[in-house]
């Protein structure tokens, strides 16, 4: 347990917690707007920002923030214009960003290993000033994502309604893009630019298997993201005694494992919902009796109970039985 | 880079008076949805002038007086949302930034759910509702802002008859409270009895504006017998002129019939 007494490990734990909370918070809005891969695109653009920092000798975290925000604003602009070939324009931006970053790193005389710290994360080498920057940026992201959730939810849910309600839809869309850019750079040191999107999207996908409302999805995604990044870091740290286990991929794989566990539960819940779905309100005119039926339906009989007007139906092999005196009616 | 927008509406002159229930009708592509989107400020006007409550639309800021019910588009977004949350977003016209919901907000949301008959489904996901129930949830969302003027875009589209009747009952309660309602519809169905004034669109123009028309009369060239005010008095017998480009056969004469 003395692993946790090391300074680098404590810094890593702090970075993991704030990243795990911030990335899924923005990710929820991206998934809601069906822009799940936007984080990935911003991550590619941010590579150029990191390289600029390495080239000029300034902090790569801050140059990455600036370049990622500019890139995100540009992506949002292209998206909003609704160009017929908008996705192609986005692809140009993504690969321009990645290629530019790799090229600039070489020109700056930095090794590929230095860039790799940012591409795949290197949470255990994070410096004190980087931890502070990460904490401040993550706090901003979380406060805005939670504090403005009614507005951001409305804009992402129904843009036209939000506009007629007097909200500045463009400003909110731009805000989400900028928040995504900031959280990409926050997560850069934890899971790396190429895996950022996973931490933004996978916890949301996991949460929505079991949730029915937006707020619980947001909260559950943040909790799952935090759990995955903390758990992944600790697993990787202990596994490192045996083999070289990088925390970034461990965090991502752990959150994917959470999804794999939750998915069958989601399938089952959705099936239950379909069984409970209301029938058309016009009842069958004739009185249809179920055939010989030895089973006694009741609150604990295991069949799904559905309230139907003044009585309860039990779902039985895809049809519904209602108690009627000594026998069951088909409803 | 951007192509000039096609002209969709021409020569539209429409004044809606407080307390009226106006049905905007017409065939698909006649411009009725475009008109309602222009009236709400969603589409820019190429030419002309639009006032909301006497204020030019570009200066209009009192959006809480307007309730918009857009066309229902599938199950919606990528993340689940409960009926209550969707309806709660209708209160945004009254809420300040970073403030929690007030007692008044919660009461308005409860009341809106009650008017459309969805109180019991408040905690359920929107995507679990049937099409007609989703439509009622969108009406409750507009209702939660307690607006004076409602715009509804095809609330009846893809809704089964029992839900259309429930919808008509909800709108009837709004009308009884004195709300002004502008409703786009292809067919009125159970809503017909609520309508005070029918406006029929054809090819981006108002072809009829007057007393309520039955569904079948809207699509007949002379608007049945009930017409009180006709916008094409010079060709009353010609009826509907098709604006589609004509494709002539090679041996046909060049003259139009």
Briefly summarize what is shown.
In chain A, 67% of the residues lie in helices and 6% in strands.
Q: Which helices and strands occur, and which strands form pairs?
A:
The complex is a heterodimer of chains A (331) and B (257).
Chain A lengths: L6 H26 L5 H19 L3 H22 L4 H22 L4 H9 L7 H20 L1 H9 L1 H6 L4 H20 L7 H12 L6 H26 L7 H30 L28 E4 L2 E6 L2 E6 L2 E4 L1
Antiparallel strand pairs in A: 1-2, 2-3, 3-4
Helix pairs in contact in A: 1-6, 1-9, 1-10, 1-11, 2-3, 2-4, 2-9, 2-10, 3-4, 3-9, 6-9, 7-9, 10-11, 10-12, 11-12
Chain B lengths: L20 E6 L5 H8 L11 E2 L2 E2 L9 E4 L13 H6 L14 H13 L15 H14 L4 E5 L7 H16 L3 E5 L12 E6 L2 E6 L4 H4 L39
Parallel strand pairs in B: 1-6, 1-7, 4-5, 5-6
Antiparallel strand pairs in B: 2-3, 7-8
Helix pairs in contact in B: 3-4, 4-5
What do you see in this structure?
- The complex is a heterodimer of chains A (331) and B (257).
- With 331 residues, chain A is of the alpha+beta class.
- Chain A folds into two domains: 2-197, ABC transporter involved in vitamin B12 uptake, BtuC; 296-331, no CATH class.
- Chain A is 67% helix and 6% strand.
- Chain A contains twelve helices and four strands, in the order H-H-H-H-H-H-H-H-H-H-H-H-E-E-E-E.
- In chain A, strands 1-2-3-4 form a four-stranded antiparallel sheet, with no helix packed on it.
- In chain A, strand 1 and strand 2 (311-316) form a beta hairpin.
- In chain A, helix 2 packs parallel to helix 4.
- By secondary structure, chain B is an alpha/beta fold.
- Chain B has a domain at 21-148 and 161-193 and 207-218: P-loop containing nucleotide triphosphate hydrolases (Rossmann fold).
- The two termini of chain B are 40 Å apart.
- Mean pLDDT of chain B is 83; it is low at 233-242 and 253-257.
